[in-house]
C-alpha cells in the first residue's frame, strides 16, 4: 500500500494519492478499451492522504480483460518509476470476479468521463508556498475520498483544503467549485477551517522559549529550540476566530510521528517535559 499520512504535515512530500492514481489508471485503461465502472471506494478521512482505492470494473469478454490487465500493468510501471523514492510499496492489482454483467449497474460513459475530469482536475498537493517562511506550504488541497453515492449512478468526492491565509483558501475553494460545475457536478462546501497566520514576534512565543530553558537541562540547547510553522489545521485557528481574532497564541506538544496513518505514534518520553513546560508558562502568565 501507499504511505498515506497527514494531508497538511506531509503534503509537501508529494506522496502518492491513491484516488488520483486510480483515476489516472482508469483514464489510461479507457484509452485502450471500454471501461465500465461499477463501484469505487478510496480514502476514508478528509485530513489524511488516501493510501488505498478499490474500483470494480466490468468487462464483457476475455479480450477486454486482457487489454485492461495490460493497460493497468503498463501504468503501474509508470507509477513506480514516478514515485520510486517516496512510495516503495506502490502496487496496483487486478483480480477477476465472476459477475453477471448483464444485470450489473455501471456509470454511463459520460459520467465516467465527468468523474475523471473532476478528480484529476481538482488541485491535489501544495498550491502555494509561503513567501515569508522557507519551505512552508501556505495553501494546499487533498482529494481525500472518492466513493459511490447514495445511488449507483452517483459518486461523491471529498476534499480537504488548507491555508493560513483566508483569501487564498477561499480562492482555491472557488476554483474547485468552478471545476466541478463545469463538468456537470454539484458542490457542497461547508465553512472552511480557519487559518492561523504565523506570528514570529509573538510575546507568548518568546515566553515559551524562555521557559524551555527550565525544561531542557542544557540552556544552550533550550535557547536554540527551533520555532516552526506547520501546514496543519490547529485548534488555535478556531479559538482565535471565536474569540474575535488577534489572540496571542502558541502551539506545542509531545513528539508525534506518522500522524493520520497506521504508523502514528507518540514518543512517551516527551510527554512529561511537555506538561512541565505548560505549568511553567501558565505560572508566568498568571503573574503578568
Question: Could you explain how this protein is built, in words?
Answer:
The chain is built from eight helices and seven strands; from the N terminus they run αββααβββααααββα. It has 288 residues and is an alpha+beta fold. The strands form two sheets. Strands 1, 2, 3, 4 and 5 form a five-stranded antiparallel beta sheet that branches. A two-stranded antiparallel ribbon has the order 6-7. The longest helix has 21 residues, at 62-82. The model has no long low-confidence stretch (mean pLDDT 89).
Q: Which percent range describes the beta-strand content?
A: 5-15%
Task: Give the uncertain stretches in residue-range form.
Answer: none
Computed CA radius of gyration, to the nearest angstrom: 23 Å
In round numbers, the mean pLDDT is: 89
Oligomeric state of shown chains: single chain
Shape: elongated
Order of helices and strands: HEEHHEEEHHHHEEH
Largest sheet: 5 strands, antiparallel
Structural class: alpha+beta
The helix content is 25-40%
Amino acid at each position: 500500500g501507499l504511505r498515506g499520512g497527514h494531508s497538511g504535515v506531509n503534503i509537501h512530500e508529494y506522496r502518492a494519492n491513491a484516488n488520483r492514481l486510480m483515476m489516472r489508471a482508469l483514464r489510461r485503461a479507457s484509452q485502450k478499451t471500454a471501461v465500465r465502472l461499477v463501484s469505487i471506494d478510496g480514502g476514508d478521512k478528509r485530513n489524511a492522504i488516501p493510501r488505498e482505492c478499490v474500483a470494480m470494473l466490468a468487462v464483457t469478454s476475455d479480450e477486454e480483460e486482457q487489454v485492461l490487465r495490460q493497460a493497468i500493468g503498463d501504468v503501474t510501471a509508470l507509477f513506480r518509476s514516478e514515485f520510486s523514492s517516496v512510495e516503495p510499496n506502490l502496487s496496483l492489482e487486478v483480480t477477476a470476479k465472476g459477475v453477471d454483467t448483464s444485470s450489473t449497474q455501471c456509470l454511463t460513459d459520460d459520467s465516467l468521463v465527468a468523474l475523471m475530469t473532476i478528480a484529476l482536475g481538482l488541485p491535489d498537493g501544495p498550491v502555494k508556498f509561503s513567501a515569508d517562511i522557507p519551505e512552508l506550504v501556505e495553501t494546499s488541497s487533498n482529494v481525500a475520498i472518492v466513493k459511490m453515492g447514495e445511488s449507483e449512478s452517483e459518486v461523491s468526492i471529498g476534499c480537504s483544503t488548507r491555508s493560513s491565509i483566508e483569501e487564498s483558501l477561499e480562492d482555491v475553494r472557488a476554483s474547485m467549485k468552478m471545476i466541478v460545475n463545469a463538468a456537470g457536478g454539484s458542490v457542497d462546501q461547508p465553512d472552511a477551517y480557519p487559518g492561523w497566520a504565523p506570528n514570529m514576534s509573538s510575546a507568548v512565543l518568546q515566553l515559551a522559549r524562555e521557559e524551555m530553558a527550565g525544561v531542557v537541562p542544557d540552556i544552550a540547547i533550550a535557547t536554540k529550540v527551533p520555532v516552526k510553522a506547520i501546514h496543519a489545521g490547529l485548534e488555535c485557528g478556531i479559538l482565535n476566530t471565536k474569540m474575535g481574532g488577534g489572540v496571542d497564541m502558541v502551539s506545542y506538544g509531545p513528539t508525534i510521528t506518522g500522524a493520520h496513518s497506521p504508523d502514528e505514534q507518540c514518543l512517551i518520553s516527551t510527554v512529561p517535559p511537555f506538561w512541565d513546560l505548560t505549568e511553567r508558562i501558565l505560572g508566568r502568565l498568571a503573574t503578568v
